[in-house]
Amino acid sequence: MVIICGVGGTLQTAIAYKENIGFGVIGCDMMITDADDYFTKGCGRCERFATPDCSTKQWEDGLSALRRICRDMGLAESVKWAHPCYMHADRNIAIIGALRAEFRFSFFNAALMKDPKSILEKQGPNTRHPDMIRFIDNAQVADLEPVIRAYLKEAMGYAELGIKPAKDNTEIELPDELIEALDADVELAEAFHALTPGRKKSYAINLGSAKQSSTRVSRIAKFRDKIIAGKGAMER
Question: CB of 62 within 8 A of CB of 140?
Fold first, then answer.
């Protein structure tokens, strides 16, 4: 899923995302921690932060409309991966992001979503399930508001009941922090799913050995370049 600079942390911890998927370039140290800043300045992941060229500027009306809907639905607003993330029943429900050519509203645990209107799209060729609504016009949010609300209500219901997507027993079990990072970062997800089973397992073992969630998040940030390069956790 996703998420954007201009989404894609525990989170609130920076996992470096590249601009071509919406997340800022590695090295930017101004990632936001206050959701208000996202809607007025951007995510802080790239040099366009707090400038008229930030991707959030041209989509300001649409992004604000998505925020209004989420708040009106009673979702708790937080900042994760330097982007507005909306939670319910202690579970991530959706995240907002913007690119130069579009802005997105992405759902977590997308495998559960029924998508009766067939509006969800996959964020990349290796994305397992359609998980995002893509907007190319600010006015689309108002047009789709009833559908957005219905989809949020569905996702909130799963959270309240503690329902999670069924696990594929043939897959390597990954820590929640890595699953969330993959959901939020298209490039990272594409690269990770392209790894050999042995390399995937190396990350699962390494991250699983960490006792604290914050440690796992920190390791994921450090591992990102290796995963993109197609390497395992212990490879140089």
Answer: yes
Give the Cα separation of 101 and 110 in Å (integer): 23
CA distances, 46 to each of 12, 100, 140, 229 (Å): 17, 13, 27, 21
Q: Kindly tell me if the per-residue pLDDT of 34 is higher than 90.
A: yes
pLDDT tens-digit series, residues 218-230 = 999 899 999 999 9
Q: Of 83, 111, 110, nearest to 99 (Cα)? A: 83
Give the C-alpha distances (Å, rounded to integers) separating 91 from 77, 131, 137, 165, 213: 12, 16, 29, 13, 15
For the chain, domain boundaries: 19-161, 176-228
Q: How far is CA 231 from CA 2, 201, 227, in A?
A: 23, 12, 6
Q: What is the spatial distance between Cα 155 and Cα 157, in angstroms, rounded to a whole number? A: 5
pLDDT of residue 27: 40
Res 129 pLDDT > 50: yes
Residue with tokens 């699983």: 208
Is residue 28 predicted with pLDDT exceeding 50?
Answer: no
Side by side, which strands form the sheet with 91-98?
76-80, 83-88, 91-98, 103-107, 132-135
